[in-house]
Amino acid sequence: MEIERARRYWNGEATTFDQEADHGLAHPRVVAAWDALLADLLPAPPADLLDAGCGTGSLSVLLALNGYRVTGIDFAPEMLAQAEAKATARGADAVFLPMDAAAPALPASSFDVAICRHVLWALPAWPTALGRWASLLRPGGRLVLIEGFWHTGGGLKARDILAEMPPEFADVSVRTLSDQPDLWGGPVNDERYAVVASRHSDSGAGTRGAAVGRM
Q1: Is residue 93 a contact partner of residue 26, using CB atoms and an 8 Å limit?
Q2: Average model confidence (pLDDT) for the chain?
Q3: What's this model's pTM, rounded to 2 decimal places?
Q4: DSSP codes of every residue in 45-98
Q5: What CA–CA distance (Å, rounded) separates 7 from 101?
Q6: Three-state secondary structure call for residue 114
Q7: What letter would DSSP give residue 39?
Q8: By the 8 A CB rule, do 52 and 73 touch?
Q9: pLDDT tens string 57-84
Q10: How far is residue 56's CA from residue 52's CA, in Å, rounded to a whole number?
């Protein structure tokens, strides 16, 4: 099965995944850059936050230490083992669950925020995943997608995500991140961005729109 092959691959990547500066978030300058970005993109803590495809948990741990009530999900057990060890070492109170990020078995309307970093592009049916994440958000909840279209040809362009954004979301905006080298541990020459959207406060509220540029 496709998902089993993917699980084996990411299990095999778990021990070396954090060697990339933006994966491990070990350098103080990189951590400070992510702290500043997330403070702009997210509602103030405390809030119930889902980290979909949390991997080794670097973002989950950072968010938990900043006061969010974090649930991280990933389908790769070895990634989750790294995440749990990291949370324990840092004293971060985060919950990690073995679960497919594309189809979370979680109660509807149970989160204030759903965040996904560099995972959406790897999901075979990623537009469907967006709809599932929408169902997990409370009215007024926020979706934050940190994605890119890389020089290797992998990834998603921001315009492709905007075209597939489910109707449950309003106030969709895009922030360019390619010009912030501290986030990545150095300069990059590809498309990196954050898409932010809010779930309608009720079934008939909100106006749909997309603004591309800096938030």
Answers
A1: no
A2: 91
A3: 0.90
A4: SS-EEEEET-TTSHHHHHHHHTT-EEEEEES-HHHHHHHHHHHHHHT--EEEEE
A5: 12
A6: strand
A7: H
A8: yes
A9: 999 999 999 999 999 999 999 999 999 9
A10: 12
What is the structure's pLDDT at 1? 53
Q: How far apart are CA 123 and CA 155, in angstroms?
A: 10
Residue 1, SS3 per DSSP: coil
Q: Which distant-in-sequence residues (6+ apart) come within 8 Å of 109 by Cβ? A: 135, 136, 137, 138, 139
Paired tokens of 3: 């998902």
pLDDT of 140 higher than 70: yes
The tally of domains found in the chain comes to 1
Residue with tokens 């979680």: 106
**CATH number, residue 6:** 3.40.50.150
Instruction: State which residues form the domain around 24.
Output: 2-212
Task: Read off the pLDDT of residues 146-179 as tens digits, 9 standing for 90 and up.
Answer: 999 998 899 999 999 999 999 999 999 999 999 9
| pLDDT score, position 212 | 40
The Cα–Cα gap between 24 and 184 comes to 11
Query: Which among 151, 99, 100, 152 has a CA at the least distance from the CA of 123?
Result: 100
What DSSP string describes 15-31?
A: TTGGGSHHHH--SHHHH
Sign of CA dihedral 80, 16, 66, 168: negative
Six token digits for residue 177: 């991140």
User: What is the rounded CA–CA span in Å between residue 60 and residue 115?
Assistant: 10
Residue with tokens 């749909």: 208
